Amino acid sequence: MWGMPKMRYADCNGSETSEETEIIVNIGGVRQVLYGDVLNRYPGTRLAELVNCSSGGYDAIFSLCDDYDPGKGEFYFDRDPDAFKCIIDVYYFGEIHMKKGICPICFLNEMEFWKIDPSFLDECCKSNLSEKREELEEIAGRVKLILDDLEGDPSATRWQKCQKFLWKFMEKPESSLPARVIAIVSFFFILISSVVMCMGTIPDLQIEDAEGNHVEHPTLDSIETACIGWFTIEYILRLISSPNKLHFALSFMNIVDFLAIMPFYVSLTLTHLGNKMMELTNVQQAVQALRIMRIARIFKLARHSSGLQTLTYALKRSFKELGLLLMYLAVGIFVFSALGYTMEQSHPETLFKSIPQSFWWAIITMTTVGYGDIYPKTTLGRCNAAISFLCGVIAIALPIHPIINNFVIYYNKQRVLETAAKHELDLMELHAGKATRETGKPSSTTAALESNLKMSHSDTYIPLLSDSNYRTRLQSCK
């Protein structure tokens, strides 16, 4: 039996509660003696109602607990004893702390059962609860997306069904084997296009045009045209099938896709029509500037690489650490460049002509690059360089661990959420099939399915998935 201090408090309603009033509760097999004057501090809770329910008879008692032994005077509750250890603290200390290892959502359900207001939770526990709710919302969103993919809206028109099929075909490689093949082909086109762009700059592979200028080989130009044609068709199909055209156009990755194909058509237009509107030299300069923008297509690899996407999200979550890194480096660059300029002025062949010019030396020194184009020649200058090098190493090393930690946490979290979404779907399908077999009526299993879901996994039950539309559609998709 748990040992709790026997404390005495006056009833908050002003009534005279005897100090001898006590009740014995059995929480999941663990007995606990509680005192009425303590429990009546919060009269709206289940335990306080249990103290004052003797006049109501057995009906009132069994409405509050799962079982009652009149011989021992013991009330039985089929609840988590570990969570109850935290719940009982509210009567003695006025606040509740969740123990490590208890699911926040499950603990919130326990508080609801014992009729304890969530405001008694400490702030640290509330933050854990908010984080858990966000995870459940994300899992629910993933489950709904999967259910939407299994079967579309039955009232949708033929064009809407075709549009959704095309969207899955172009955007979701995991939906089918042909969609996976298309994703692989697109991936190879990106690699081929990037290789051709690099090979086109090799002088041995270039030819001279009529004006004597070096241009890309026609074969490489043809391969480039074929790749751009594939990217264009892919972009147009994805735009046509997109359920939200504005969101599609403003998405970062879709902007990258547009920038990857736009320079080809602009340079083609300038080459064929620009000669009539401007000088040939200006046209060639504009075309060269646009061709440089072809490097944007390498970012298309992020669409087909979950690792690159995870790295991008991890960097977004590490803005604070990256900001600290840049601040450390900025302060060090300013200080050591000013010191280097001052110390090197006494040397007749100094390479430090000004403080702004010394910034370059400080950058390549603190980042341990060390090109050697600018270097100190005095003893004090070399000491300053050594100190700046050591400070640069420390400044770069300090934020690295938090950034790596954010990447690992986010990557592991995505894997856990993906597994949880699949687990939720399996449970929904299992209980939907069980309810269908028992009733023989798939259309009337909504209440049974919701009840089975709650009983099967109380700590992972997602209220956002209680919509009967998703459950009945899951049954029809089997």
Automatic annotation (TrEMBL):
Boundaries of every Potassium channel tetramerisation-type BTB domain copy: 23-124
GO CC annotation terms, alphabetical: membrane; voltage-gated potassium channel complex
An MF annotation (GO) of this entry: potassium channel regulator activity
One protein family per Pfam: BTB_2
Domain Ion transport: 180-414
InterPro entries for this protein: Ion_trans_dom (IPR005821), K_chnl_volt-dep_Kv (IPR003968), K_chnl_volt-dep_Kv5/Kv9 (IPR003971), KCNF1-like_BTB_POZ (IPR048010), SKP1/BTB/POZ_sf (IPR011333), T1-type_BTB (IPR003131), VG_K_chnl (IPR028325), Volt_channel_dom_sf (IPR027359)
Gene Ontology BP, a term: potassium ion transmembrane transport
Annotated localization: Cell membrane
Domain of life: Eukaryota
Transmembrane segments: 177-202, 246-268, 322-343, 355-374, 386-404
Summary of subunit composition and partner proteins: Heterotetramer with KCNB1 or KCNB2.
Job of this protein: Regulatory alpha-subunit of the voltage-gated potassium (Kv) channel which, when coassembled with KCNB1 or KCNB2, can modulate their expression and their gating kinetics by acting on deactivation upon repolarization and inactivation during maintained depolarization. Accelerates inactivation but has relatively little effect on deactivation. Coexpression with KCNB1 or KCNB2 markedly slows inactivation.
PANTHER family: POTASSIUM VOLTAGE-GATED CHANNEL SUBFAMILY F MEMBER 1, VOLTAGE-GATED POTASSIUM CHANNEL
Protein name listed in UniProt: Voltage-gated potassium channel regulatory subunit KCNF1
Organism of derivation: Lepisosteus oculatus (Spotted gar)
Taxon lineage: Eukaryota, Metazoa, Chordata, Craniata, Vertebrata
